[in-house]
Specification:
This protein is an alpha+beta fold and 120 residues long. The protein folds into two domains: 1-30; 33-119, Sandwich (Immunoglobulin-like). The protein contains one helix and seven strands; from the N terminus they run H-E-E-E-E-E-E-E. A four-stranded antiparallel β-sheet has the order 4-3-6-7, with no helix packed on it. The chain has a three-stranded antiparallel β-sheet with strand order 1-2-5, with no helix packed on it. The chain is elongated and about 80 Å long.
């Protein structure tokens, strides 16, 4: 009987030690998606272009918006037009954006990601 109790305690102790590792891996999975856009955003300073590699992230895009410094919407791509598993190119001059600072906003169905861009 004492041997059975000992093995039961050992098994419970090992299971309890494994729980924190499982929790941290779940938290890691939850941080993926829109948070990964920081690593999927690129700038071509020479040409003044910006790129978002949506193939490198696991996020479903609801909309992409560019706001001027006063918060006015200057450009918007809605759901069905939003890229999926593709590289999205932003050419500020082709969009008619004048020199200045803008906020690029990528909205998913659960979160938003913002990046400041400068047009020269």
């Amino acid at each position: 009987m004492n041997l059975r109790t000992f093995f039961t305690c050992v098994v419970l102790l090992l299971l309890a030690a494994a729980l924190p590792a499982q929790t941290s891996s779940e938290q890691l999975a939850l941080s993926s998606g829109i948070d990964q856009l920081d690593h999927a955003f690129y700038q071509d300073s020479e040409e003044g272009l910006y790129f978002i590699d949506f193939d490198a992230v696991s996020v479903i895009v609801k909309s992409i918006v560019i706001l001027d410094s006063q918060g006015n919407e200057k450009f918007k791509v809605e759901g069905s037009e939003a890229p999926i598993n593709d590289i999205f190119e932003i050419n500020p001059k082709a969009l008619g954006l004048s020199s200045g600072t803008y906020t690029l906003v990528v909205n998913s169905y659960t979160d938003s990601w913002k990046k400041t861009i400068t047009v020269r």
